[in-house]
Amino acid sequence: MEANYRKNPKMGEGFGLDMENWSPQGHAELVTKFRHRPDDPVGQMLMAHPDKMIERSADGMSLVGRPAFRLRPTRSREQAVELAREVIDRYATDISATNELADAVSQRKAKLTAIIRVCQDLDQMHLFTDGNIRTITFLVLNKLLIEQGFSPAIMDEPNAFDCMSVAELTALVLAGQQTYQKYAS
């Protein structure tokens, strides 16, 4: 890895989107989610350019007929802390609401969805200059899974949280739990 790669305009901060971590459904969810957050840099990009919320990468690379993109959120430390608090508070509300569901199967499904949403929101906000997916997918995801009585997950493609749909991520997390169980036994 080259020195100061984060200061390289070709790399920049943010995350790249490709066929491993992008789907049309995930992109639609991302657009819907951030369009309603005008104070967030991602929301500002959506308002300014609704059809081009992510910019073309510096090299103009194209994958399967679709350009590779780089999302570049920039915010102050204070903004990042406030956004993280909002997401975590929403997660706590979602988890609390699962107790009102009638059956255990519905409760577990709602808890897993809440865990996936909070992890995806934190990843897509890209709160840190570096290490976002490692922090969120390897640490936060597994911490929340364990807290809610689930098995940890070993994700084959942790970057899927960048721009896959919640339904797609649910399937990937369930597969990751099977991978964990395989190695745990």
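Second entry:
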Amino acid sequence: MEKSAEELYAGNDGLEDFPQTHTWTRALEFAKEKHKGQTRDEGTPYYEHINGTMEILIKEANTTEDEVLTVAALHDILEDTDCTYDELKENFGQRVADCVQLLTWDWKNGQTFEEYAKTIFENQDFKYARKIKLADRLHNLRSLPKTNNDEKIQRKIEETEKYIVIYDKQAPKILMDKIKAQLDTLKAMQNSKKNLDKQPTGTEHEEKEKLLL
């Protein structure tokens, strides 16, 4: 379900003059238009991922900085829409455009996920990008069960442990802890499925009983 900036912010303190003077509310509308018509693997509108990432930052990580929330609203826009860097720069300024570009995985030109994660977590100009990346990944991990794709779930578990959790010391603890907890939940779910698959069917159980008689 699409949510307005007011709904995302509901119940949070710190932005008394919300929403008139904040760029992030305009960025949300911009992203909503750019991602219009896109859907995710779990079948939900793409914009719900933007909402989810923003909610994590605002309600779970107590994020109020306008620039951080602006970049968060736009974090997938260069990778997944026809929006260009120059268009971002014109509408939201160079700092926002540069940070969104930092958060854009350039897999089309051969950048590995390992290289991508390293550029974010070792970047010194936009340290807040780490927080956005963790919120983005946390929402993705929470959405994985809806895909019913065991291969993708396992791949994302391994990818997160190998290339994101290793930056434990450089990342905001509150979000990294939530990512670790979600990984534990997903692994337990995967193990449960494997155990169910190993259980003998009714016919197999009957054949085993005959052998034991």
